[in-house]
Fold each of these.
Amino acid sequence: MTFDTLTLILLGGVVLGALYALMATGLALVWTTLGIFNFAHGTFIALGAYIAWQVASSEALGGGLLVGALVSVVGMFFIGMAVYYLLIKPFERSPDIVVKSVITTLAGATILENLISIAWGPRNKQLSAVLTGDLQFLDLVMSRNEAAAVIVSLIILAALGIFLQRAPLGRAMRAVAQNREAAQLMGIDVARLYAVAFGLSAALAAIAGVLIGSIRFMNPLMGSDPLMKALIVVIFGGIARFTGPIYAAFIVGLLEAFMTYAVGLYWSPTVLFVIMIVVLVVKPEGLFGKHRKSV
């Protein structure tokens, strides 16, 4: 392996890690707050990309990428809240809410995928690049569009971290995640915060979808692979800390980049799943999770 090849692999891993961090953080937000896994998260990514394309593309409304991205993020926030009220809230008090949420979010994902196919068709589409051209430093060359994706992802994640740490609504969401009953006794509207968590998760998925759509071709099933990678990242990093999935995302991104070079694109997901299983066996709470002793 030459130095140039190594740097290309590292750069590719950083780009993947930034996108995975954005996907996984949205997934982890619902997981930590509601205690359920949202199988529609991948479809949120696809729907967010298609809404942005509808507004931004010259083949549709022609509003430009920035306007398309803003409409997509706002629209997906309200769609995420609607999904919570329609598919999760009716079963909120059920003792088997986890199983029912798996069924309802899978059903929701299937319905949304079919609606995307009906509305936009099965043919590939692509958003315009955030930035065009290449960045060159010494002998290293990187696409400006990919660099922009990394920077935007990090800015969004930093803003989300500040929101959860300092904003009253963010602190209330953390309180609900830690102890729902205590939060209710303190007068916090838990159902409203659950809806907001779902909305924020969908908005993050929309941003990820826009960035992916500007780099790769879009299709109605484009969310399947991001959902799988986000699941791996969340399990790999754990959800005890906000930064856990972010660190894990970059580790998984670099691992995938190296595995793609070493064993090929076909086998790299298999290697990632093997590593995930090993992590679950050795450290079930994730690499950056905290071990809780049973009483």
Note: The mean pLDDT is 88.
Amino acid sequence: MKLLINEEPIPLLPSLAMKVGLNSAIFLQQLHYRLNISKNIREGHKWVFNSYDDWKEEFPFWSLNTIKRITYDLEQKGYLVSTSKHNKMKIDNTKWYRIDYEKLPFSYTPNDIPANPKWDAASTQRETATNPQLDAVPTHIETVAYPTMGRPITKELKKLKNKPIVEKNLDVAQSVIQYLNDKTGKQFKAESAATRKFINGRIKEGYTQDDFIRVIDLKTKQWLNRHDFSTFLRPSTLFNATNFENYVNELVVSQKPKKQLLVMPVLDFSRGDE
């Protein structure tokens, strides 16, 4: 079939759309796929966790308000179950989602999606990267079966090659922000788009997680107990391109051994050779 634009199409199940609506059908299809490959099991169910910003990346053609309306509508109808109680930190408001298949307005015969090692590996890395506090996953959950609702939105296929880089950056962001919060007692969020932009920018320049940690250590030592400077212990200041480079170089200078002054011997020529 020739498409109007040379682009991967978004799969849509017409019968599903007729039952729940167009937007809800697209959302449920993607969530269903993620549930099939999810390694996160709680209370006997598989879950997928995502922030609204994460959903926005998967559905770039929807606004955040539209995504909120879709999820709210699905929750009200009982098709979607969501909670934040599975987060280990109380300040973490990331939502966990699953489909209540028994509430859907049609019946299914459970059937696993055929295994695809590349997709399974990529999705597993994505979820553990965005939430490093997950418990170890039991090996027996592979046997859990869910209804088949088709392939995921194929836009993700295009991103598959870049996923290892994205996942690595997300993992670094989580670790760096958690470390900054521990050192300063603040509550910055690694999921913040602005924060990720600063951290990803420095990673692209070749800096490592250790560089971030050393800069945080340096600046908290210098600023934490100074009221006029403690407010600058924030991602927008610490990880700004110019500031970060200066702080790293400040570390290099501070780590250089101090040069010992060469003291010239005092010669007493009046005593002759001895």
Note: The first strand starts at residue 41 and ends at 42.
Amino acid sequence: MERVIHIDTEIDSSLPLGPQVYELLKKGIVQAQFKPGDRASEVEISRQLEVSRQPVREAFLRLQAGGLLDIRPQRGTFVQKISVKAVLDARFLREAIESDIVALVAVSRKAAVIAELKKQIKAQRKVAKADPVSFMKLDDLFHRTLAEAAEKSSAWQFIEDLKTQMDRVRFLSFNHFHVEQLIAQHVSIVDAIESGSSTDAVRYIRNHLREILKSLPMISHEHPDYFDPVSDELADTTTIININ
């Protein structure tokens, strides 16, 4: 039976409406509250949020551009499946960008940045596996802090837009993640930065960002309804993981 997306969150009428509608829908899709094939009704969402159809239409177009919604003229608008190719491409670009970022941070070795990163790691340990949403927010904060420390905030914004499909996989696979291992990898990155070793920092961030490759084949098998037909590209993930 076809499900229709329902949003019961209120929005702030004093702020721009389109971005709020976009973020609500994006969050629901990324966190698997809305599933592939669910129908997004412009009329219904406008009614639920008590807004005109224009900001909803704007949000739909942004979500379509990001590969999250499929707008089919005369048929309706539906939540897209996850593209394995999009996930792999995003991960590849993210690794390339963040490797340069940590190299820059390791060269600067700013004490205040290192102290802030260590503080964030303590917060990550408190949340750990008990609260996936909070942990992923802290994980994003860690990576954003690195980008800002390298004075590459615009690069992080690019990554934010890029990694949406990766985030969908992260939420589906969170129970398979070894959160303690992810935190340990953060510690290794910060230790390398503190010692001024850009080589080690790059190596650790690359390994960290390849964790998703270990879970992707398993998650796509466990949740086939969430993914486009799995391509042969998944067969290459082991090779990528083992590259130094």
Note: The beta strands are 69-72, 76-79.
